[in-house]
Amino acid sequence: MVVHKQKRQSLLFRRATNPHFHLSRRVLRTLILLTISLLWIFSAGHLEPAFSNPGQTTNIFRPLSQPAQDISHLSLLVIAICTAIFLVVAGLLVYSIIRYRHRAGDEASEPPQIYGSNQIELAWTVLPILIVFVLILVTSRSIAQIQDRKPPAGTVNATVIGHQWWWEIRYPELGIVTANELHVPASTDSRVRPTFLKLQSMDVAHSFWVPQLAGKTDLIPNRENLMWIEPTQPGVYLGNCAEYCGTQHARMLIRVIVHAPGEFDRWVAEQKEPAIEDAGAQQGRKIFFANSCVNCHTIRGTSAQGMFGPDLTHLMSRETLGSGAAPNTSEMLRAWVRDPQKLKVGCLMPNMQMTDTEVDQVVAYLQTLK
Ligand code: CUA
Q: pTM for the full model?
């Protein structure tokens, strides 16, 4: 009995003091976790469309425009090279762990002691240098191709200005100002019509990112960054601000609406019109102009020329309110005018403390701004 207990104790002692035993377990656990994470990352690209509307996915592995397609191909190449390296390293590690694991009787002799190997050291210095060199070359080639793109005839030019927490969108050549929804034409084989964007910021750093169209580009105060997109499939593309910019960073969503050829010009013609004057909403109009709404919002063709908030000339042509915080429905518009702080805490539009009747009248007026 005593002997048996002693034997067990010595086994436990050996386990506790043998560094190989613990190391291999820990390494195995890490390897399993790494493999699961990698599988998850790879499957995410393929599983996601099954769970969401394919037109409204924000998956970088389903690019539908240049330069997102080039960036995606490059990422796949980089991921493939890194996966190969991972498999070789992890394979060697697993092989070593199993092949050279601790065995009974190992205490009796010491394994052969090896000091240095020129071949091995050369191999693990030269090979990584070559791999990194290839990665640098392919990446700089893609960056140069994207940045050197010259705008062809028919290019649409837009300026996107980041605000806390919404996007101002200007088309200087077309005389259009809108917010949070960037409208662009689709390119076809016969007519390439990219949109070139100038990115600026009014306050802090933001980042423009619509994963299916292009990579991320920051909007930085006192600086102008450039990017371009060239979508070929009409539809709505979702994106968001990708640089933390304050409380409502998460509700600084952007939509890119890609129009079929011809439809874009119709949208432009509609947006160029001044605001509609509807005689039926005069009461609400009066309240809007009597309050400080006009200090922040512009309604083209009226005396409201504020610049701090979104242009409301064609508010009802937009799909969302508060930069994607809520859909643009009567109910939500009413909730927004009543108290924007409820829908988007911390946004710069205050509760105007209007009565219920006044809110109804202002909403009725806003709804005429088609
Ligand atoms: Cu703007 Cu984050």
A: 0.78
Measured from the CB, is residue 252 less than 6 Å from ligand 1? yes
Query: Which two tokens mark 183?
Result: 């409208």
Strands, E assignment, 202-322: 206-209, 217-219, 225-231, 235-241, 253-259, 320-321
Helix (H, G, I), strand (E, B) or coil at 53: coil
Long-range contacts of 24-33 (CB under 8 A, 24+ apart): 24/97, 24/101, 27/93, 27/97, 28/94, 28/97, 31/90, 31/93, 31/94
CA of 322 to the centre of ligand 1 (A): 13
Q: What is the pLDDT of residues 153-210, one digit of tens each?
A: 989 999 999 999 999 999 999 999 999 999 999 999 899 999 999 999 999 999 999 9
361 vs 128: CA distance, rounded Å? 69
C-beta 160 within 6 A of ligand 1:
no
Torsion angle (degrees, nearest 10) of CA 128, 129, 133, 136: 70
Q: What number does the ligand 1 atom closest to the CA of 204 have?
A: 1
Convert the pLDDT of each residue in 39-51 to its tens digit. Answer: 776 665 554 444 4
Beta bridge partners of 253: 240
Q: Is 162 in the pocket of ligand 1 (CB under 6 A)?
A: yes
Nearest atom in ligand 1 to the alpha carbon of residue 252 is 1
Decide: 243 in ligand 1 pocket, CB within 6 A.
Answer: yes
Pairing state between β 166-171 and 156-163: antiparallel
Atom of ligand 1 nearest to the CA of 162: 1
DSSP-derived 3-state class of residue 339:
coil
Model pLDDT, residue 71? 93
Q: Can you name the residues that pair with 225 across neighbouring β-strands?
A: 199
Ligand 1 and 369: CB distance under 6 A: no
What are 336-367's pLDDT values in tens digits? 998 999 989 989 998 888 888 888 888 889 98
Measure 40 CA to ligand 1 centroid, in angstroms.
28
The CB of 206 under 6 Å from ligand 1? The reply is yes
Residue whose CA lies nearest to ligand 1 atom number 1: 206
Whether 42 is in the pocket of ligand 1, judged by its Cβ within 6 Å, is: no
